[in-house]
Amino acid sequence: MKKIMLAVIKIVIFLIFISICSHFLVPINVGIVNVGNVTGAVVSVIIALTALFFGTFRKMAAVMWEHTAGRIFLSAVGGIVSLCVIGALVISGFMLGAMRDKPDGKPTTLIVLGCQIYGTTPSRMLMHRLDTAYDYLTEHEDVCVIVSGGQGSDEITSEADVMQQYLINKGISENRIFMEDKSTSTEENLKFSREIIDREGLCGDITIVTDGFHQFRSDIFAKRQGFKAYNLSAETEGWLLPTYWIREWFGVLHCLVFK
């Protein structure tokens, strides 16, 4: 009976992580391939196979442990995995915390961070950010907004231009919208927006509009520009969230170590 239960548990774990793996593969159908879904898919498969062949892996580990080199290797792997898990949990905690830091009526300048556009149409992710900004702008008619995003190599115009037009079409006055159309990264989004705020005499405190997973890294760059920053998080569609959440772990590490 015990063997049957263990077999059932192994199969259930295997199926769960194969299902998780397939979730990471879905964005590939629309051309989204990045470190987030690759890492998620690979780790899910490793865990699934480890669960399914747990007995075999345990025997291999026992044989390796009998040798000094094997013990060093297994200890190193265990240490690296532990550090990765702890790091992921800590970064996720900061990411969740940043999502809750809302302006709550404080006077700020809105900054909407750009992302992919298709021709002159915003992607669904960008549209969610713009709709979040629109709702806030209609409730706070004294607030100005900077739409921030340059032109990618595969784009026919700047993201800022598309963003501005989207908000104007929804009824936001052009006089309230300032375009930052040179940036190619989150760091430049905030750096070049700082220049616009100083030049135009806009409110120096800002509210960043982006996806929730992106808020913490945006906050880091905002603080480096001397901003007091609040956050408004746009909806991220469920089929994209795991991919971009894991991708953001690497983005935060790169920001802290290399920027």
The CATH class designation of the largest domain is Alpha Beta
Instruction: Give the low-pLDDT segments.
Output: none
Number of strands: 7
Strand order of the largest sheet: 5-4-1-6-7
Main sheet attributes: strand count, strand direction, barrel closure: 5 strands, parallel
Note the total helix count: 9
CATH topology of the largest domain: Rossmann fold
The CATH superfamily of the largest domain bears the name: HUPs
The outline comes out as elongated
Q: Taking all residues together, what is the mean pLDDT? A: 95
How many structural units, i.e. domains? 2
Brief synopsis:
With 259 residues, this protein is an alpha/beta fold.
Give a written overview of the molecule:
The radius of gyration is 23 Å and the shape is elongated. The strands form two sheets. A five-stranded parallel β-sheet has the order 5-4-1-6-7. Strands 2-3 form a two-stranded antiparallel ribbon. The protein has two domains: 2-99, no CATH class; 109-237, Rossmann fold (3-Layer(aba) Sandwich), CATH 3.40.50. It has helices spanning 2-25, 35-52, 54-65, 68-99, 124-139, 159-169, 186-200, 215-224, 241-258; strands at 109-113, 117-118, 121-122, 145-148, 177-180, 206-211, 229-234. Helix 4 (68-99) packs across helix 8 (215-224). The mean pLDDT is 95. It is of the alpha/beta class and 259 residues long.
